[in-house]
Amino acid sequence: MNKCYIASGWFSPEWMAELESIKATLDKHSLKYFSPKDEAICETDAALDRQKAIFDGNVNAIRGCDWMLCNTRNKDMGSIFEAGYGHALERPIVYFSAGLPPGAQFNLMLAQSGVTVCTSLQDLDTYLARCVSAGGLQVESYKGNIE
């Protein structure tokens, strides 16, 4: 559990607040993380060499992480790509899907590629507490409905 890569959108005030809450939860458990939003933001009109540098930096951070936390809010395409790449590198993935109501469906491919799915900040907090206490990520497979 040394270093987490946070895959999450931050493209609205709501998304940004949620990302900051996720980071605060990781901080609470003294977990180190890499958040692309904190490293380099790519302007919408950035030159191709700048785009490539940011892409390469994020890909290298995924390669260097021990595990990933992927926020699935609004199905941000970048976050889903990052999770897929991390899965291909055999990085354990914790999915964060706040607001998934009881009985709602979670994506089959994500459910099967993750070690767990947390549906609230409290759920994430208690999951991380169990992991820290156990000395590593715990596999708690998603058991809800899938799409």
Strand and helix map with partners:
Elements: E1 3-7, H1 13-28, E2 32-34, H2 36-39, H3 48-64, E3 67-71, H4 77-88, E4 93-96, E5 105-106, H5 108-113, E6 116-118, H6 121-134, E7 145-146
Parallel strand pairs: 1-2, 1-3, 3-4, 4-6, 5-7
In short:
The chain is α/β, with parallel strands linked by helices and 147 residues long.
Strand order of the largest sheet: 2-1-3-4-6
Low-confidence regions: none
Strand content of the residues, in percent? 15-25%
Give the quaternary arrangement of the chains: single chain
Largest sheet report: 5 strands, parallel
Q: How far do the termini sit from each other?
A: 30 Å
- Could you give the count of β-strands? 7
Look at the structure and give the mean pLDDT.
93
Q: Fraction of residues in helices? A: 40-55%
* Shape verdict: globular
Helix-strand pattern: EHEHHEHEEHEHE
CA radius of gyration is 15 Å
Total count of helical runs of at least 4 residues: 6
Counting helices, strands and paired strands, the structural category is alpha/beta
Q: How does this model look, in words?
A:
The protein is an alpha/beta fold. Helices cover 47% and strands 16% of the residues. The chain contains 6 helices and 7 strands; from the N terminus they run E-H-E-H-H-E-H-E-E-H-E-H-E. The strands form 2 sheets. Strands 2-1-3-4-6 form a 5-stranded parallel beta sheet, sandwiched between helices. The longest helix has 17 residues, at 48-64. The two termini are 30 Å apart. The mean pLDDT is 93.
